[in-house]
């Protein structure tokens, strides 16, 4: 491929993941350290009180609080609440509400505060007990900030966590883009395979698992290339076979037409004359089919269908006349069971006639000398149904599935004549172009094959 080449040591996908994880962890530690430095600088500048500020203030002020005559609000250190009790534990006053006084009294006498970061200290005074409550958290020095914002350490820790999460998202995006870049070669190779361009080479990208996928694509490309070359050779051989067959048909058809033109110049009359004229029409049709077949093998597009309004009854009568000739040629008995329809169909008359005569020719071939061909046509609510049955050996299970495939000649039961496997294939394609369908089956009445054709009105 050549448009992306990475000259780096091959690593596993796990190795790349660990690398990005390590970078994220290192970055997270740096962010946490910066948060610690920021808090330390703020403490040194006096903007934030340290977490143990309450303990320090208590040690400084406890003697003053113990000996002062009266406890006043301004005597209480910053960041502290207080409650004043009698010696028996009755709440007198303070910024600790009376509803919390019992807990403050019990915790201060127990000597510890439990698992919370709220601490209580007591100062025994003459005739009363002062309980101080404070939090072991770094707090803002500014009273307004303490009032409206959470603790300073909570804000800083929260910002650090958010930064770490944001950095995690950034590293995840970078890891995804790295994988996408490494996968570009695989994606390009898949697109080229879809376009049937097999002239490329998947280069290594440095990720072991992706390189294995690339190697598998290379093997698949080579196998596909061999398969396509084989298929192209088979297609070429098939076209050559069709071309040779069509070319060889031209000579006997030309000879037959020449002799038939001599018969037309004779004094035949009546039914004999009609038979000779019908032969002439059929010969011209065969010559047209052969030319179309040769055009297809030469790469020309087949003639487009030119659909016109066709009277079903008149069309079926023409099929009946030509069917007589096909049955007579095989010395088979023809049974015609066409009901009058008085309806019209949209059809390319020439192509549709070709399809039906292919079906009838098959029935005549397999019915053989002394056999029976039954042709029926009936008008349904949604279309015209034409059924061709014969008394031949019938379709095998395989032929019922593959009988409409091109060049299928594998039915051992219906192999009484030499045929190329094109008749039902061509008929099926033509009927599909008319919006109809062709179904294969076996006749319960005559024991041979049954071909059922449906055409829409």
Automatic annotation (TrEMBL):
Catalytic activity: ATP + protein L-histidine = ADP + protein N-phospho-L-histidine
InterPro entries registered for this protein in UniProt: HAMP_dom, HATPase_C_sf, HATPase_dom, His_kinase_dom, HisK_dim/P_dom, HisK_dim/P_sf, HssS/ArlS-like, Sig_transdc_His_kin-like_C
GO molecular function: phosphorelay sensor kinase activity
Record-annotated Histidine kinase domain positions: 244-457
Broad EC category: transferase
CDD domains per record: HisKA (cd00082)
Annotated GO CC locations: plasma membrane
Chain segments annotated as transmembrane: 21-43, 155-173
Compartment(s) where it occurs, according to its Swiss-Prot or TrEMBL record: Membrane
Domain of life: Bacteria
EC number: 2.7.13.3
Protein name: histidine kinase
Natural source organism: Blautia pseudococcoides
Origin organism lineage: Bacteria, Bacillati, Bacillota, Clostridia, Lachnospirales
